Amino acid sequence: MYGYFQHTLLVLVFYLSLPSFSFPLSKRTISTRPAIASNFPDPSFLEVDKTFYAFSTTNGKHNIPIATSPSFTTNWTILQNHDALPKLPSWTTGNIWAPSITRLPTNGLFILYFSGTSRASESKHCVGAATSRKITGPYSPLPTPLICDLQAGGAIDASPFHDPISGTLYLAWKIDSNSLGGGGPCGNADSSQPTPLQIAPLNPRTGTSFLRPATTILDRTEHDGPLIEAPSLAYSAREGLYILFFSSNCYNTEFYDTSYATARDVLGPYVKAKRPLLVSGGFGGRLRSPGGAEVSADARRIVFHANREVGDVRVREMWVGEVRVRGGVVSI
Question: Of 138, 160, 134, 136, which Cα lies nearest the Cα of 147?
Fold first, then answer.
């Protein structure tokens, strides 16, 4: 059933080459080894004053760890004994996932979006937000979640996107309906639930309230296994193309991957690629369940995690890559 995901990436020196569907993909390059060779899953990043800052899912000690690099491609260092979100809001019991950050151009405020276990229903997550005047925090959380439809399964994987065409600040996220059950390691093995990726415009002055209701821009099909998640939007000005990166399948299986879809409008319609961008066994066998990616808004840089060992999610290392789009060709 999932032979789709067992596609093997062809490796030529440091290049990965894949067929495409809506525009050709070739010569994708990524780092030859993890940028952070320790547990740093679901990474996101932001450049501030020529320094890159990365944020990750909880490591069990800190709610949101931070790492820094002067160059993006190398020399990443985790800030020891530092938690970007040391105090949690009362609506969550913890288990903080997939933080993502932006800076408001109107006032310079940093907004950190995150998913936390709902105190009202601990099998589900909700999306919250926190603010700081400093990139490293500490971030002060809002008292209530931004997105928390528990009947639909909750929400995870919020990711901001500044649309350079309209100037609008958007937030994308996943409705976590596989948390409602259905069997399997991540739920929804019976394919009874959709797991839509949604997007809505944010108030540009606060970054913590919505201007309009959400729009669904993508959903799972039978080729995605039980779910899609981890949306990250980018725009190639050279191509006039919006690129929606996402992961499909369950994170603790070999089928977890990084895929993508494209559109000419930020609200879609998005068309999925015929094959995922990154899969287990890629890059000479070095990649294991690569996913949880985030891409810079200008489609130039990508971060993602991959398991250190096959089937072991206890250590998901951070990898980085440089993205280019030229003449209808995307390279990493």
Answer: 160
Task: Name the pLDDT band for 3 (thresholds 50, 70, 90).
Answer: very low
**Predicted model pTM:** 0.90
pLDDT score of 23: 35
Q: Is the separation of the CB atoms in 124 and 150 below 8 Å?
A: yes
326 has which bridge partners?
329
Name the percent of the chain in helix, strand, coil, to the closest 5: 5, 45, 50
Find the mean pLDDT for residues 148-164.
98
Per-residue pLDDT tens digits for 67-90: 999 999 999 999 999 999 999 999
The mean pLDDT of the chain is 90
Mean pLDDT of the 140-160 span: 98
Rounded to whole angstroms, the Cα distance separating 230 from 316 reads 15
Coil/strand/helix, residue 282: helix
Q: Would you state the pLDDT for residue 328?
A: 54
Tokens 């998901």 locate to: 316
Question: Looking at beta carbons, which pairs linking 118-121 to residues 24 or more positions away fall under 8 Å?
Answer: 118/91, 118/92, 118/93, 118/145, 118/148, 118/150, 118/154, 119/90, 119/91, 119/92, 119/93, 120/91, 120/150, 121/150, 121/154
CB 277 within 8 Å of CB 18: yes
Task: Return all residues near 219 (Cβ < 8 A) that are at least 6 apart.
Answer: 194, 195, 196, 197, 228
Distance between CA atoms of 127 and 115, rounded to whole angstroms? 4
- Measure Cα distances from 68 to 21, 79, 188 in Å: 36, 7, 37
Q: Token pair of 158, please?
A: 């919020």
